[in-house]
Specification:
Elements lengths: L26 E5 L5 E6 L2 H4 L5 H14 L59 H17 L3 E4 L9 H11 L5 E5 L4 H7 L5 E5 L5 H5 L3 E5 L23 H40 L13 H14 L1
Parallel strand pairs: 1-3, 3-6, 4-5, 4-6
Antiparallel strand pairs: 1-2
Length: 310
């Protein structure tokens, strides 16, 4: 075999790497809930300024659509269809093709050959590919100017009329994808009855949802600021408790843990004492046998007793 370094005039395919352009800075419309124009807002280049990777987009969107399939379709094979125990007609003399069972796939009412069975259509997709596909979809929408950022929704209670007014004043035509925070339940319920509006949370945002919508609406709280926001763990910053809230909780839990440990130690000591007392009561007391008195004294005493008896 020849050394790859000595080859001339040929390029190995695994050594070819496509150079992609550097991220560019794109802008989005910045408005309020009343529809007033507040200017433009610069978007993060590493999130909205990439060149879309169409191959990764196709693979990830296909995997997401495949994972959404139920996979519950089922057909019966010839062994599962009822009947077919006897030979339907004679082997010869009928002029028909020979048949051994009426449940054959070639017979009416028979089983299905190579039919579908319940299965999972889910495909394994690496997290980096999922994130790259999402960033590519966001960059595509930013490139054609279909991203709007709102300062605040101003929705204090679930009301479809308020949500419809906001969409009308924003002058968004076509399908709209609204990205909400995890705790903006009033806004989510307000947009639920609008057929042209689809809502999703920041942690559930996917490339397929972005591509199937004409407009993408963020708020100041949900606008991504770095690619690390889409780590694939679906955990947002607002869902994580603050350190100041965690520390008092741990401080309050410490005395309770200490008390629990003391109670367990006391119970263990009592159980040990009870076990020892039970064993002591069950064992019989062993008395030491008196040692026999040997020697001349014992012999003399026994002789005196014999003479007195005589």
């Amino acid at each position: 075999m020849t050394d790859t370094a000595s080859r001339t005039g040929s390029v190995l395919r695994h050594t070819v790497r496509k150079e992609r352009p550097a991220p560019v800075t794109r802008t989005a419309l910045y408005r309020n809930a009343a529809g007033h124009d507040l200017g433009t807002l610069d978007l993060e280049p590493t999130v909205f300024g990439l060149e879309p990777n169409r191959a990764v987009l196709h693979q990830v969107v296909t995997a997401q659509l495949a994972a959404a399939r139920a996979g519950t379709q089922s057909t019966k094979t010839r062994s599962e269809v009822r009947g077919g125990g006897a030979k339907p007609f004679n082997q010869k003399g009928t002029g028909r093709a020979r048949q051994g069972s009426s449940r054959s796939p070639s017979m009416s009412g028979g089983g299905v050959a190579l039919g579908p069975k319940p299965r999972s259509y889910a495909q394994r997709t690496p997290r980096k590919m999922v994130r790259l596909a999402l960033l590519s979809a966001l960059s595509d929408r930013a490139d054609i100017g279909r991203i709007v950022v709102i300062d605040d929704w101003k929705i204090e209670e679930p009301k479809t009329k308020d949500a419809a007014t906001i969409v009308r004043k924003l002058k968004l035509k076509g399908s709209v994808l609204v990205v909400l925070g995890q705790h903006e339940l009033d806004a989510e319920r307000s947009f639920a009855n609008l057929p042209q509006v689809q809502t999703t949370t920041f942690g559930e945002l996917s490339a397929h949802d972005v591509l199937r919508s004409d407009w993408l609406v963020f708020s100041d709280a949900t606008l991504p600021s770095a690619p690390s926001d889409f780590s694939g763990t679906h955990v947002t910053a607002e869902a994580t408790p603050a350190e100041d809230e965690v520390k008092p909780a741990k401080a309050e839990a410490a005395p309770a843990k200490a008390a629990t440990k003391a109670t367990k130690a006391t119970k263990a000591a009592k159980a040990t004492k009870a076990t020892k007392a039970t064993k002591a009561a069950a064992e019989p007391e062993v008395q030491d046998d008196p040692e026999p008195e040997d020697g001349p004294t014992a012999t003399a005493e026994s002789g005196e007793e014999a003479e007195s008896d005589a």
